[in-house]
Amino acid sequence: MSSVGAALPGSADDASTAGRAGPRRILDGAGRDSAAAHALQRTWSDKPGVLGFLRTNDHKRIGRRFVVTAFLFFLLAGALAAVMRAQLALPDSHLVGPDLYDQLFTMHGTTMMFVFAVPVMQGLSVYFVPLMVGTRNTAFPRMTQCAYWVYVVGALTFWIAFALNTGADAGWFAYVPLTGPQYGVGHRADLWNNLVNFTEAMGLMVAVDIATVILKMRAPGMSLRRMPLFVWASLVASVMIIFAMPSVMLAANLVSFDRTFGTHFFNPAEGGDALLWQHLFWFFGHPEVYFIFIPALGFVSTIIPVFARRPMFGHDAVVMSLIATGFLAFGLWVHHMFATNLPELGKSFFTAMSYMIAIPTAVQIFCWIATLWTGRLNLRVPLLFVLGFFFIFVIGGLSGIMVGSVPLDLQVHDTYFVVAHLHYVLIGGAVFPLFGILHYWFPKLTGRMLDERLGRWQFWLFFVGFNVAFFPMHILGLQGMPRRMYTYGAETGWGPMNLVATIGAAVIAVSVLLFLVNVVRSWLHGERAGDDPWGADTLEWSTRSPPPPYNFAALPVVTSRQPLWAPRPPDAPTHVSGLSAEDREGLVTTVLDALPDVRYSYPEPTVWPFVAAWAVYAWLFWSGLSSAGMFWGLIPPAIAFIGWYWPSEKETTRQILLDKRP
Amino acid sequence: MKNANRMRIPVVALAVLATLYGCERERRDFGPTPSGATAIKSMRMSDLFPGGSDKTPAVDNRYDDNAYALAEGKRLFHWYNCTGCHGEGGGGSGPALMDNVWIYGSESENVFATIVQGRPNGMPAFGGRIPEKEVWQLVAYVRSMSGLVSSQAAPNRDDAMHAKKPESEVDRQRPVDVSTPRP
Amino acid sequence: MIEALHNVQAPGGVQAQAVYHLWLLLLAVCTIVFVAVMAALALALRRARRAGAETRPRVELLERREPAVVRAVVIGVAVSAALLLGLLGASVYTSRTLAGMPLTDALHIELTAHQWWWEARYDDPAPSRIFLTANELHVPVGRPVLLTLRASDVIHSFWVPSLTGKKDLIPGREAMVTFRADHAGVYRGQCAEFCGYQHAKMALFVFADEPEAWQHWAEGQLAPAAAPRTALEARGRELFETGTCAMCHAVAGTLAGGRHAPDLTHVASRATLAAGAMPNDVAARTAWILDPQAIKPGVNMPATRLAPEDAAAITAFLGSLQ
Questions:
Q1: Most exposed: A63, A350, A580, C221, by fewest CB within 10 Å?
Q2: In a domain, A552, yes or no
Q3: Which has the closest alpha carbon to A210: A326, A130, A284?
Q4: β-strand C203-209 against C185-190: which pairing, if any?
């Protein structure tokens, strides 16, 4: 197939602009090893060393940082779970007292939800969405860079506080009045509020960036109908984050005001309402599980076509289902509050909504099964994890139908039945696809393949261990065991099932260890992967493994939903050319049909986002502890943002020149 | 590199200090007071001393920095009906506790003795009625009402009707005793 | 410790029974759906030919319509939606059943949850027949019970699995729960909303007695404390009234009138101590009085330094409070 490039209007290649003023620059558009590619390499590389590390806004480096950091916290939170299971293995155990146990389950839940699950999904989006849509970087790379540092310092603060006996201890949902000024003794609840501020700021920043790159910077020809399903999932999740996260930030800050300034938002004696917290929190909390789950659905939709060797059956239906799920997720939150004294008929409405959201999920499941049924299956580890996802997530979804019914929920709410349900949907629905996609994308991330045998062992140990650990919890809940208990008496009869669950947890730990061994060994000595070891269909596989800093030597033109599989029409161009290879330039396209629109100058790498992250951190941390900090703490961010936005004459001059012609 | 090594000692020292401070504020002490822990040798009742200043060391009530103990003290202040005579600290039939005037002394051992021994004109002796550890918690809370404890550990507002500024917002006052002439 | 029923699948009353039927229906439908979906997946795995990364992908399917597959998926979704609608109907029907339990001649109890014990106030139109107890409810078999639920500090949740679903007790709000015990026996409940250090040990026992037995119990609870019969009990009562106990606890008919801790007027008639944490025997009572923090760390009751003979006296006095 000959490589035909189309010249962008207004570029140097465009005959109509020949002869205009300005020095001639090298343009992109030629092949991989051309002078243009070398120029792109020079332009897009970061300086080596610590300074380059801090200044980079390469979405691949930042995305990788998100994933690695999130995984470290996954291990830490998992270790806490191991301690909890050790404590609960036997009745009347004295391994861990109530104070430490309360901190353990709070840190475990908060870390897994806020510090692991959302950042890892967003991190993978940051890495792979620009590659999948065929562009060179995300839309606001400095903002994502800042988001990473805000996330890291926030998460570290939270955990260092735990080491200093100031770990949050009132559950990951931190109900008032237990976290209020009277019963939330000390500063533990303040550290929780701070973490929420940090991670939600990060989430919002990354979500805006991802949504923008998806809507405005896709490769020419990648209309919305031709967009890959993971990109759709990232878009839906990002928009959900933008609507949901302000609710929890607001709630956490209202509690912070109650604790620090003596306001009365949640004080019934002065006109406040303890239930207000639950509404605000769960209005965020329910969509949150979906913006962990929807990218995972995107992972499954990415893996299945490749490993069934056919396009996704019902692609449009899957897209509609993703969007419907995103909408409906905002109408379910009261199902976490069925045990309160809200009106009964109103609660039944939320049962109806909770059942309704099962329908788009069912559509996706049936489309996936149909794709597998009519495909030709390459039974490698990524597909194994997807099969594990089916088994576990369907159980979780069905137990969700059970807890979604008001009368039954009044029996199983706040018991181990719910613990089982949430782990089935979160681990089955998010972590299994996550491991699958990591096995799938590892070659693209590192240039090496993960070991297949270790991967299979990891899968089977995780699958068996998970079911042994969590299935008995359904039974424990029905037998009357509530959540968040540091111990229980032998006379309750809960001992045997708890012991089984602890054994399962140990097996899970072994499987995670195997994964770590696999990653480290493969990173160092794994089999080298080419551009496209899986024979896949999306654009990230058309470039090197790992991709060069500029992603593509020439931005591709997309003519079908499976750009790497479908034959191109003979007269269609394969790529566009005309962006400057000596400046960081990208292409903005229209929203619906991705027609080239304007050329976009990416910001240069700078250390200001790193500085700004620390400044924002200082402000949020200080204001969480004292009233003076709320106001005086604004000075560092003010300075940092002024520095960040201060225009650079050199850059402005260059951009004006590029505007006229490259 | 040399500079980095020099920084290491102050950084470690800071970390250790932070650890100690953080640990004390957040410690939850569920055990009983160890026996013999509170042997009060002597107490000063006044600022007036013949022949120079007194060198009696004050007993350090380690609950002054402990958020849990201060919160417990606040709870017990209401449960044991201290509010019946002292109100929320503004006084009533008993003297105000949130001002800077201390009839029998403001140091921890003085307040402890006041609670345990009782005082003329209506303060009951709670000696055999409140366990020693709880008395120390009350001592710390009473002192917090005039800002004499760490404001980071002092309690915040109650989930009740708004009666006064929370103890964590109170400015630290300089205690004076009745021997100090007042205008 | 006493044998008690605490299982959603072992209903002892009409409310739990209705929920149990709904549970069986949901379990049946969800199991069938699960088996069907897994069967479809297993069939798909068996049917499909195997392939490798280099196998040519079937891109022609982008253009081709697949009517048989479309039909199968549409039927699957339609059946799922129909089942969901049916289950929604069953859920709403059960809700209405629970709300429609007849309340004629209901026994009214006001339950206030504290950190980490339950205060029960048996209501009566005649004020002199109102009495207080703690951590243990007795209800007559076959008579509806109406509980008014309040919380004094943080959010708790009242839950007795074999009798009824749970209800949160939220400060500043008043909730209600109704149930009826249809079989005599002992039912165990527990606080089901995380409420602090001792949330794990905040149990509650509901004794469903035959009506005459319940009447006898209620009359007993109305009476003030029994007079001490031995010198040891008298000494214990004296220590109780003049020592730390009376600062928080009340025993009707003595000088002890504290309102912040469980009412102990008839403590010896209860099956357990400390909200179900211990059996109510002499050894447990003594250990609890001397150091409650060793059994329930963080609980509001302090350790009391007592000479052994004084501890024995107080324990004996409490043992006399039937």
A1: C221
A2: no
A3: A130
A4: antiparallel
Closest CA to C278 of C209, C206, C201: C201
Structural domain of residue A626, as residue ranges? Answer: 608-660
Is the pLDDT at B53 greater than 70? The verdict is: no
User: Please, what sign has the CA dihedral across residues B10, B16, B18, B21?
Assistant: negative
pLDDT tens sequence across A74-101:
999 999 999 999 999 999 999 999 999 9
CA-CA distance, A406 to C94, in Å (whole number)?
9
- Local structure of C155: helix, strand or coil: coil
Q: Using CA coordinates, name the residue in chain C closest to B34.
A: C305
- Which residues are CB-neighbours of A23 under 8 A, at least 6 positions away? none
Place of tokens 């209007």: A9
C6 touches A at CB < 8 Å: yes
pTM here is: 0.94
In this structure, what is the dihedral angle of CA atoms A389, A394, A396, A399, given to the nearest 10 degrees? Answer: -170
Q: What is the DSSP string of A486-534?
A: S---GGGT-HHHHHHHHHHHHHHHHHHHHHHHHHHHHHHHPPB--S-TT
Option in A165, A262, A627 nearest B157 (CB): A262
**pLDDT score at A182:** 95
Mean pLDDT of chain C: 95
Q: C165 and A407: CB-CB below 8 Å? A: yes
Q: Which two tokens stand for residue C313?
A: 């006296």
With respect to residue A625, please indicate whether it lies within any of the assigned structural domains.
yes
Q: Which two tokens stand for residue B53?
A: 């200043």
> CB contact, 8 Å: A535 with chain C?
yes
Q: Which two tokens stand for residue B90?
A: 């503004």
What is the distance between the alpha carbons of residues A610 and B49, in angstroms, rounded to a whole number?
Answer: 60
Give chains near B: 3+ CB pairs under 8 A: A, C
**Element (H or E) spanning A588, and its range?**
strand A585-589
- Is some CB atom of chain B closer than 8 A to the CB atom of A628? no
Taking alpha carbons only, the member of B19, B28, B22, B16 closest to residue B63 is B28
Amino acid at site A59: H
Query: Which domains, ranges and CATH numbers included, belong to chain C?
Result: 1-46+62-221 (2.60.40.420), 231-319 (2.60.40.420)
Contact C192, C157 (CB under 8 A): yes
Looking at residue A9, its pLDDT comes to 58
Residue B123's beta-bridge partner residues? Answer: B119
Residues of C in contact with B131 (CB under 8 A): 244, 302-305
A49: left (phi over 0), alpha (psi -120 to 50) or beta: left
pLDDT tens, residue by residue, C59-76: 998 888 899 999 999 999
What whole-number distance in Å separates Cα of residue A349 and Cα of residue A179?
30
- Chain C CB contacts of B35 under 8 Å are 305
Closest CA relative to residue A349, chosen from A338, A360, A362, A363: A338
Domain count, chain A: 1
Which residue reads 């001792």 in tokens? C198
- The answer, for B157 touching chain A at a CB cutoff of 8 Å, is yes
Contact C162, C7 (CB under 8 A): yes
Task: Annotate A193-223 with DSSP letters as a single string.
Answer: HHHHHHHHHHHHHHHHHHHHHHHH-PPTT--
User: Residue B108 in contact with residue B183, Cβ under 8 Å?
Assistant: no
How open is the CA angle A151-A154-A159, to the nearest 5 degrees? 120
Residue whose structure tokens are 């208990």: A485
- Two structure tokens written together for A84: 């909890």
Tens-place pLDDT, residues A327-386: 999 999 999 999 999 999 899 999 999 999 999 999 999 999 999 999 999 999 999 999
Residue A643 located in a structural domain: yes
DSSP per residue, C44-62: HHHHSPB--TTSPP-GGGG
In this structure, are strands C136-140 and C203-209 parallel, antiparallel, or unpaired? parallel
